[in-house]
Amino acid sequence: MPILIALLLGVVEGLTEYLPVSSTGHLVLVSRVLGRQAGSFEIVIQLGAILAVVVHYRGLLFSYLQRRDMRLFVSMLVGFVPVAIIGKLAGHAIKEHLFFPKPIAIALAVGGVVMIVIERLRKNKETLTGLEHVTPMRAFYIGLGQCFALFPGASRSMCTIVAGQLTGLSTATAAEFSFLLGIPTLGAACLYEGFKSRHELAHDIGGASMAVGLLTSFFVAWAVVASFLRYLKSHGLEPFGWYRILLAIAVLKFM
To answer: How far apart are CA 215 and CA 17, in angstroms?
Structure first.
């Protein structure tokens, strides 16, 4: 893979993995415009995004381990289980039939409307702030919401943040747990897909392109996670909803 393409795809992944706009949808659309499928390279750049969250939250995670407080880790595991089951059962059919511009545009538009409606309904309502409020039961409901992210264009971030909001969490807390839930969810997906595509990764992409894509995704995703959390403390998700709707219209019109 050319270095410039690896750099571009790394930027796209880093920008969109943790924003509620769908990294998968953007990668499919950008790859179509470039005339080159990301293929197994998506595993590499997704790994960079996962590492960004691990590094960003290393202090928090280590503090829980030091205190031998397993509640957060239990909640992350509980939230991961539903998508692991549904993904195993339906993943192949979804990839076969839905990884195309029109289904992605529909998912973008529907998700955008959902975000706008939820934001407006929640205005001036009291919410729970802090990861200590993410109980295993709330995590399970968030995990059920994450299952909708298997539909390309839906966005794992959007589905989990909205699900967290519906359980009573503040938008910022829902986003934080969404980022942390990405560690087991995206990590398991990377390991599974990486094992299946190990020969392609070793021979078809090239070490330089892999390094560029991974590092680009890592640093861009790290910057996005930090800035998005600051943004959510005083703003809502509605602008992202409008972006999704406008992008969906553009996709339906031009692709």
So the answer is: 15
- Separation CA 174–CA 150 (nearest Å): 19
CA distances from 182 to 114, 187, 200, 238 (A): 21, 7, 25, 22
Buried b (16+ CB within 10 A) or exposed e, 81-106: ebbbebbeeeeeeeeeebbebebbbb
Distance CA 178, CA 21 (A): 14
Please give the chain's pLDDT, 255 residues, in tens: 789 999 999 999 999 999 999 998 999 889 888 887 767 788 889 999 999 999 999 999 999 999 999 999 999 999 999 999 998 888 778 777 778 889 999 999 999 999 999 999 988 888 999 999 999 999 999 999 999 999 999 999 999 999 999 999 999 999 999 999 999 999 999 998 888 887 777 777 778 888 999 999 999 999 999 999 999 988 889 999 999 999 999 999 987
Half-sphere exposure at residue 176, Cβ-oriented, CA atoms within 13 angstroms: 23
Are the beta carbons of 173 and 164 closer than 8 angstroms? yes
- Look up the pTM and report it: 0.93
